[in-house]
Design goal:
Distance between the termini: 52 Å
Structural class: mainly alpha
Number of helices: 10
Number of strands: 0
Order of helices and strands: HHHHHHHHHH
Radius of gyration: 21 Å
Length: about 240
């Protein structure tokens, strides 16, 4: 019994680290680090491009925003990694890869934290114009954009696999896209305040908030709604899907 359990564990571990399941871990790491950099660094940096004064007021919130962004990226990245796992990968191997990725997150989040801190200094570059600060901030922007590109690539591949598994993918994609467009329009027209401060989101921040609301609220609602509609009206739904 112990021999079989050992062989099962070794096989799962090998698949999680070296097989196709490793893509699940990459999604978790890339989305978690990018979430932290986007919320704690890019949001402050982009605000500085429009209004350095507002960015200076937002700067003390950068660490909190980083933690919130990383936590959101971790939760959503883990969910996407599981539902968007390779078609030949078992759920067990996907979970193993996700759990193993937590080890890699320790140094990855340290790098992302430094990058976010450097990006948040954009307002200082615009006001002080020091060469050292400009160099450090530029490196932070490069690292942040590299993480964003990595997360976009891994996320897109995961979404493609997830949509392959989703029976209602076609109407679901249309509804989610419509929700994103409506939320972005509403938030751009009425910029929400940042916490309990007098600051309001920039255009970039409004779009990011709309994307977050779409991911966390609209997407689960659409998935559950379409699931039960499919369950209750399966014959008619299948006819629509084939047309």
């Amino acid at each position: 019994m112990s021999t079989k359990l050992s062989e099962w564990f070794k096989g799962t571990l090998r698949e999680a680290l070296l097989g196709e399941a490793a893509s699940c871990g990459r999604i978790v790491v890339s989305w978690t680090t990018t979430g932290g950099v986007a919320a704690g660094g890019l949001l402050v940096g982009v605000t500085a491009l429009g209004s350095p004064e507002e960015a200076q007021a937002l700067l003390p919130l950068s660490p909190i925003l980083f933690v919130l962004g990383a936590a959101a990226g971790l939760v959503h990245g883990s969910a996407l990694a599981y539902v968007g796992r390779p078609l030949t990968t078992s759920g067990r191997a996907a979970v193993a890869s996700i759990l193993l990725s937590f080890v890699a997150l320790i140094p990855a989040l340290a790098v992302a934290w430094v990058a976010a801190a450097w990006i948040s200094l954009t307002s200082a570059v615009l006001t002080l114009r020091g060469p050292t600060t400009a160099t450090v901030t530029s490196v932070g922007w490069l690292v942040g954009m590299a993480l964003g590109c990595w997360a976009a690539i891994e996320g897109w591949q995961g979404l493609e696999r997830a949509f392959t598994r989703w029976p209602e993918s076609r109407p679901g994609a249309l509804l989610i896209s419509a929700a994103l467009a409506i939320l972005a329009l509403v938030f751009l027209m009425h910029r929400p305040p940042i916490g309990h401060t007098e600051l309001h989101l920039t255009g970039f921040g409004a779009v990011i908030l709309a994307l977050a609301a779409t991911i966390w609220i609209a997407t689960p609602v659409v998935i559950v709604l379409l699931h039960y509609l499919h369950k209750w009206f399966a014959p008619a739904w299948d006819h629509v899907g084939r047309s």
